[in-house]
Design a protein that fits this description.
5 helices, about 75% helix, single chain, elongated, mainly alpha, about 100 residues
């Protein structure tokens, strides 16, 4: 499943301007943060940890305007902790995110 990162790319380009090194650094920072959030989400075993991981993931998605990830975190609210479908979909987003 391929995810579109057009709004993320536009956000990063606006922040980096004409500085390709800064653009690479911002993309790497987003990817690293996404990896950490996916890890937290996959280890959540209670409602409190699940909801906190989702809120943090949603905050990251909102900060970088990743609409598909925002929608996914909204869908996941109220689901059982460590819902395998949600975790799989977020991991797929991470796997589809290009490495620089």
């Amino acid at each position: 499943m391929a995810f579109e990162y057009g709004s993320l790319d536009a956000t990063l380009a606006a922040a980096a301007g004409d500085d390709p090194a800064l653009l690479r650094e911002l993309r790497a920072a987003f990817r690293e943060s996404l990896e950490n959030h996916v890890d937290l989400l996959s280890r959540a075993r209670c409602d409190g940890n699940w909801n906190m991981a989702l809120m943090r993931l949603r905050g990251l998605a909102c900060s970088f305007h990743v609409d598909e990830l925002i929608a996914l975190t909204d869908e996941a609210q109220g689901l059982a902790p460590n819902d395998p479908t949600v975790v799989r979909r977020v991991r797929a987003m991470l796997d589809d995110f290009p490495r620089d």
